[in-house]
UniProtKB/TrEMBL annotation:
It comes from Postia placenta MAD-698-R-SB12. This is Fibronectin type-III domain-containing protein. Residues 80-174 form the Fibronectin type-III domain. Gene3D superfamilies: 6.20.120.50, BRCT domain, Immunoglobulins. One of its GO terms (biological process) is Golgi to plasma membrane transport.
Amino acid sequence: MPQSQESFMFTVGKLDAGMAILLGERAHLIEFPSLLLPPGATTGSIVNISVQRNLAEEKKRDSDFWTLQNEVLQMYGTKSPENPELEVRNVTQTSVTLEWPPLQLATAKLRSLDIYRNRQRLASIPSPLTNTSTKLSGLQIDSEYTFQLVLRTTAGVYPSNLLRIRTHTMTDTSGISVCFGNVQDSVLLENSRMALREMGAKWSDKIQIDTTHFVCTTPAATPSGAQASGSITTAPGVEYQKALQLSIPVVQPHWILACHSAKKMVPIHPYYLGANPPVPATYSRPQSMSQASLSRETQSASPSQQQKHVANRQSMPPQRVATASPPSSSPHSAPGRRFEPTPEEHEEGEGEAAPRGTGHVRKGTMSKNFRFPPPAPPTPPPVPSGAGEGGSPPQAETRPEPQPTPQAQDAEEAALTAVGVVAPSSVEVPPPPPVDKEVAPHSMPDTVDDDVGETEEISLN
């Protein structure tokens, strides 16, 4: 629809600094850019100004505006950052290894990625755009913890799932993650891998974030480097140097066998590289995997089967040799027979004496070669402190020693070697009274200091 142009007349009143003051017919005063005035217009010039609306340009600009808004919506409004998905990679007695997929930020900018333990912030994850795992140490044994990631971006805060983890006990060896280096003994390496497999542990040839131990027998990269001239000629391996940089314990394969034998985590200080590790009782170097599995089947048998196996291997006890001997008056001995001790009893009963006519060895302090000497004249006992009523001390009752028959003496002399005669006491002597400190009853009261008299210093040189 065409619109009529309407013209307005103005008088240029003043020109100053690129601005013109125009005065209208109805005393309107407006400021007008001097660049829009016709050429040659000065102060006092009369100009006509007409104004009209451009609808076609309005539609074009409106269309361009909404096109731009749709592009912004598709780029920034339909996608948003995703919440991290936290997962467990490995758990030990004192550490936890966590991992998550790469962060999806959409078009937002990353501000920080923080790790939380038990609802408390621990630290920020370094290099969160490339790092997708972390290891947290210093935890308590057999304790429960909660872990969570919190992603902060320019588009908002996005927390991850809450993860509940319980650390292992000392008897749980499934958290062991071993990196094998140069192990020169192939049988030892095979037994170590078999032990790790049975414990539920894992191993690799490269150091990873959850590696707990580096196992090797030499730091050299190749076995030939440790065999030339009895010294290491090649440089240490790359994985060995990396283990030292990451403070990963470097142990020998015997530590794995010790953990498998004890069925728990054992200290590692006796098994450091260069130490002389104690060999577990269940490990024998010539054993292969089949031999080791056969020995474990024997060890895993029930107690009744093991006792039966031991009973079958036991031999019969040696028989005692019966020799003719004269009849004895002991009611426990058989007439005309005497039993000699077996070699085992002879070794166990050294320093012991077997009574005549018995079939067993008594344990004591006397030698088995002892024999009674001829009776000695009785020795009068010491006079006790208290005498009888008649003033004479009581006499101890003497009991003569039983005399063996001449036939028994001849048989014993043929079988036994004569030893030195020990003269036993032929009387019962009462024990002497306890010896107290001699103190005169009239010289010391109940509570007095010890009167040692005059003392004299004597040089010890």
